[in-house]
Design brief:
It is a single chain. The protein has helices at about 5-15, 45-55, 80-90, 90-110, 125-135, 160-165, 170-180, 185-190, 200-215, 215-225, 235-250, 255-265, 275-290; strands at about 20-25, 25-30, 65-70, 115-120, 120-125, 135-140, 145, 180-185, 195. It is about 55% helix and about 15% strand. The chain starts with a helix and ends with a helix.
């Protein structure tokens, strides 16, 4: 492991108050660590999560990110004292505050490496946003979920694009309007989580092993590609864009290595560093270029 990358992660961890972070053998961890408050969000915790995500996004040693929480509950959503502050803010202050939460969700959603959320106990409000922004989510049997904002005269605005994408419009209407609490089996049915297992760390291990064996560039490009397909529309622009993507990755270094390794019946030797930002940049360039036709 690169000593500089490790040292930078350790230095970041020392500066954080409510979030822990670590990096070991390609697997980064971001741990919510405010268990005395049920890991409820406030402006400090949101800022720290953004710092950790931005750090690991460009850290060449990070191949997978695991999001988890200490204590009995994943997160109770918004911190009460933070909410009291918001009630006294004017519109401009509230807008700046909301923009930070929106940035957190976007940075996690667009994180260029695979992300896994491990969820125990309560996951309310903004916590559902974090889960739905993660690529893979595993929860234990006592996990419960709630979009409770309307009970307070509010709406789940910032997290709504991600939650609605996961559960669909029809289910979102029900659970955002009723603010009813639902259990882990319902969350599984609604595709908020992928698996139920009481040993979250053990359940994550085979998934992490699979991810670490895959092409880092391939996974980054797959994530970037999926982000352009969310509308579900299939037209000539879609066909042109997806054709360009597969052609380009076939002739890339990692594409060539993967194909050659397959035909030579040997394990692929992926590069030790990958330009993860190139996936999003190239993807956006080709998508916009096709749209100009």
């Amino acid at each position: 492991m690169n000593n500089l990358a490790t040292t930078q992660t350790e230095q970041l961890a020392e500066r954080l108050q409510f979030v822990n972070c670590s990096l070991d053998n390609g697997v980064a961890q971001m741990v919510l660590d405010r268990s005395d408050k049920h890991n409820a969000f406030d402006e400090v915790m949101i800022s720290e999560m953004i710092q950790v995500l931005e750090h690991f996004a460009i850290n060449p040693e990070c191949q997978v990110l695991v999001l988890k929480a200490n204590g009995k509950n994943f997160s109770a959503g918004a911190d009460l004292n933070w909410m009291r502050k918001q009630a006294k803010m004017d519109f401009a202050q509230n807008l700046n505050d909301a923009n930070e939460l929106a940035k957190l969700m976007s940075v996690l959603d667009k994180f260029p490496k695979p992300t896994i959320a491990l969820v125990q106990g309560a996951a309310f409000g903004g916590a559902l946003g974090l889960i739905c922004c993660s690529d893979i989510a595993i929860a234990n049997e006592r996990a419960s979920f709630c979009l409770s904002e309307v009970k307070l005269g509010l709406i789940p605005a910032v997290i709504s694009p991600y939650v609605t994408r996961a559960m669909g419009q029809r289910a979102a209407r029900r659970y955002m309007l009723t603010a009813e609490r639902f259990d882990v089996q319902k969350a599984l049915e609604l595709q908020i989580i992928h698996e139920v297992n009481n040993d979250l760390d053990a359940a994550a291990q085979p998934i992490i092993a699979s991810l670490l064996s895959n092409s880092p560039q391939g996974m980054a490009w797959a994530k970037a590609l999926l982000s352009t397909l969310e509308s579900g529309e299939i037209n000539q622009q879609t066909l042109d864009h997806t054709s360009e993507r597969i052609a380009r990755i076939r002739v890339s270094n990692e594409g060539q290595e993967g194909l050659n390794a397959f035909f030579e019946k040997r394990p692929p030797q992926w590069p030790t560093t990958t330009d993860f930002n190139a996936a999003t940049k190239n993807n956006n360039q080709t998508a916009s270029g096709q749209g100009a036709k």
